[in-house]
Design brief:
Layout lengths: L12 H6 L30 E7 L4 E5 L4 H5 L7 H18 L6 H29 L1 H8 L2 H11 L1 H9 L9 H31 L10 H33 L6 E3 L22 H10 L2 H30 L2 H8 L17 H18 L5 H29 L1 H7 L5 H31 L6 H4 L2 H28 L1 H4 L25 H5 L2 H10 L2 H29 L9 H14 L1 H45 L1 H65 L4 H5 L3 H6 L1
Antiparallel strand pairs: 1-2, 1-3
Helix pairs in contact: 3-8, 4-8, 4-11, 6-8, 9-10, 10-11, 11-18, 13-16, 14-16, 14-22, 15-16, 16-21, 18-21, 21-22
């Protein structure tokens, strides 16, 4: 659904950026010596420093320039004891890679997962404690003074050497900055080994086929996997260049950097690009190795990273970057009514009816079996009722206030009509999801035959991948509902009077117009992957198609009618247009495009002239043809009349021939009758002659003469 908040005015873009991505800032910040007062009225930044920082207790200091992880690992001259330790561990990992053929696979899997747990659980715990009550600072201060000083000195060695190159010696650093540098050193150790051990695991699982065994599938997996890996590396590098070393190592957990937030490049395309597209290399290497084992490990590791983002970074971002207006808005999170399955109250009729319908589906799915046709029809009817039925109501409401007018005719207010709509829409959404799950359980069924069969690499990949898609769908739907608010989730701008006619592009709506339709169905696809079912996949695809159809048939026209300043493009589309514009500004490209444009204009002019000349020729030909047609009109009419006369004569001749045939037939009938009469007349004459002869000879009695015999009667 599009981002529409009828009750809110859209916020400034800078405020939106400040709440997202944990202050991913494009410039590093530096601290000055704690004993020196380096803050001046004009806030000039000395050499070796980049910006001012402010601790959470209000202390202001200069933050030195730091060296990012990639540069530091490849410049040994700036190494301190901490960097040497990191290099030694990396060297040991490289040694295991060299002798990987002699080391079992499980060793590399366990090694990588240990570093991954150190990242997501270990670093996550440190950051959580630091965000809550500065727990890491208190931990360092709780150490023995000599150990505390040693750790701080080891962590800041590279910075001190870099400042000495600018002529600044013996600089003392702010304690919060030193504490962050200690954490930064720990993070460098964990992050570098996390990435290295994963690559070594991929190397171990790589199986290079013989030349004669290479197929199209091998080539496709290698080429496409390589492209995905390159995109991932480019995204990571772009994100690092954009946010800088300060945000890369979670510096805002220790102090705030006084600099403008800059979100460009990859941050305009994807939310949290370091944790989303930045991890595409996992799947690229899984394609190259064609290993289900690596895919399962990748899915588990990526899932842990998403949980790290959701439970560690996001709360801290909202804590320090969320505006007071947003916090107040979240405090009154909406109406106290059923929202999904939340706020369930067993004494409300709407809640009870929803629970009864949901219980019917659950009972028939788990304890009864009415056959596949029942569950298929149930799913079909709920989907059609949701998208066709409710979609039609929203279309009529948008164009003619259908729903609110029906309630107004019964004396209800606009808010009461909207309340009934919320209950109907929420119930329909719940029933659709429940019917889909019932269909999956009863019609499709899980394809795994026991626990051991499910733990096979290919089956485990489907299980973990499906669960990751379902979790991603939950994250998307939750983010969309938080961005929209309670009323806008139910399309409140179709029912309520708007207080603002400017759409608010917040959260995921910064990157796309309809994140719910684009990624809200990942859970359906995840269930299809979990059940390894193509029918579920196509049902999900059709449902998503109906969702997009609703967006472009109902939502988009509604926004165009009622909203002002609707953006033309967002995210990827916007960045692509900007990149195309930049490409056009390149001198060589511009010269080429100008030449092509001039040639196109000339060709178009010639084509237009040719078309115009052809049009004139056609007009002349048309006039000549019209004249010839008019001249021959009388001849054509005469020919038509002659044909008509001929047809009339032909009909007369046919009629006469029919009459002649009938007359001849009648004559044949008369001839036969005449012949019959003639025969009868001959018999009668013969009889009369016999009678006369008898009379003359006197043969026969009177009786015989008076009463003729029967044969004579018949003859008569």
């Amino acid at each position: 659904m599009t981002s529409m908040k009828p009750e809110l005015v859209s916020e400034d873009a800078t405020q939106v950026e400040k709440r997202d991505d944990a202050a991913k800032i494009s410039n590093c910040s530096s601290t000055a010596g704690e004993g020196d007062d380096l803050s001046s009225e004009d806030d000039q930044i000395p050499s070796g420093y980049q910006a001012y920082g402010t601790t959470f207790d209000g202390k202001r200091f200069l933050v030195p320039e730091t060296i990012d992880m990639f540069e530091l690992l490849f410049t040994p001259k700036n190494w301190g004891l901490g960097e040497i330790l990191v290099a030694l561990v990396n060297a040991f990992n490289t040694l295991t890679m060299v002798f990987s053929r002699y080391i079992p696979t499980w060793y590399f899997i366990v090694t990588f997962l240990l570093w991954r747990v150190s990242y997501n659980v270990g670093i996550g715990y440190i950051l959580r404690q630091q965000s809550r009550d500065f727990g890491f600072d208190r931990f360092l201060d709780g150490l023995r003074p000599e150990w505390n000083a040693l750790l701080r000195k080891i962590a800041t060695t590279s910075i001190s050497r870099k400042l000495e190159e600018t002529g600044q010696k013996g600089v003392r650093f702010n304690r919060e900055f030193e504490s962050w540098m200690v954490f930064r050193l720990i993070s460098t150790l964990i992050l570098s080994n996390d990435g290295q051990t994963y690559c070594i695991l991929a190397w171990k699982l790589l199986q290079i086929p013989a030349a004669e065994d290479i197929t199209i599938g091998h080539i496709f997996c290698f080429v496409f996997g390589t492209i995905v890996c390159l995109l991932s590396v480019a995204a990571k590098r772009d994100a690092h260049d954009c946010v800088g070393d300060y945000a890369w190592y979670w510096g805002d957990f220790w102090f705030r950097l006084e600099t403008n937030l800059i979100f460009d490049g990859i941050f305009e395309l994807f939310p949290h690009p370091m944790y989303t597209v930045g991890y595409l290399a996992y799947y690229g290497l899984s394609l190259i190795t064609r290993s289900h084992t690596l895919l399962v490990v990748s899915l588990v590791a990526h899932s842990m990273q998403i949980f790290f983002l959701a439970f560690i970074e996001e709360p801290h971002m909202q804590k320090i970057y969320g505006s007071e207006e947003e916090k107040a808005k979240k405090a009154k999170s909406g109406r106290d009514e059923l929202f999904g399955l939340g706020n369930f109250f067993p004494y409300r009729y709407a809640d009870i009816s929803t629970a009864v319908l949901l219980g019917q589906i659950v009972m028939t799915a788990l304890f009864l079996n009415f056959g596949s046709n029942f569950y298929t029809l149930q799913l079909f009817l709920w989907r059609i009722a949701h998208w066709m039925g409710l979609g039609t109501i929203m279309y009529l409401q948008s164009t003619g206030q259908f729903w609110t007018n029906k309630f107004a005719s019964r004396g209800y207010t606009r808010d009461e009509a909207f309340g009934e709509w919320r209950k109907l829409y929420n119930t329909s959404t719940i029933m659709n999801n429940a019917a889909y799950c019932a269909f999956a359980i009863r019609v499709v069924g899980l394809p795994y035959q026991g626990l051991l069969h499910a733990l096979l690499p290919d089956n485990l990949a489907c299980i973990v991948g499906g669960m990751l898609l379902i979790a991603s769908s939950v994250f998307v739907v939750t983010s969309v509902s938080e961005s929209l608010g309670h009323d806008s989730w139910y399309y409140g701008d179709l029912f309520l009077e708007l207080k603002s006619y400017k759409p608010n592009y917040d959260g995921l709506y910064r990157y796309m117009d309809n994140p719910g339709s684009a990624f809200g169905y990942l859970g359906d696809y995840g269930l299809a992957l979990l059940f390894k079912s193509w029918p579920l996949f196509w049902i999900s695809f059709c449902s998503q198609f109906l969702s997009f159809a609703f967006v472009y048939l109902v939502e988009v026209p509604h926004m165009e009618r009622y909203y002002k300043d609707v953006r033309e493009s967002a995210g990827v589309h916007k960045l692509v247009n900007e990149q195309i514009s930049k490409i056009y500004e390149v001198p060589t490209i511009k010269k080429l495009t100008d030449g092509v444009t001039m040639r196109t204009v000339k060709s178009w002019s010639k084509l237009r002239e040719g078309v115009e000349s052809q049009n004139e020729t056609f007009a002349v030909s048309a006039r000549e043809a019209k004249t010839k047609f008019l001249n021959k009109k009388s001849d054509v009419i005469k020919e038509i009349r002659a044909v008509a006369e001929y047809l009339d004569n032909h009909q007369v001749a046919v009629h006469a021939r029919n009459l002649s045939e009938r007359a001849q037939q009648q004559l044949r009938y008369l001839d036969q009758e005449i012949l019959e009469l003639a025969k009868r007349a001959g018999l009668l004459a013969e009889h009369m002659e016999v009678a006369q002869q008898r009379h003359k000879n006197g043969i026969g009695s009177v009786a015989e003469r008076v009463v003729p015999d029967k044969s004579q009667k018949k003859t008569q």
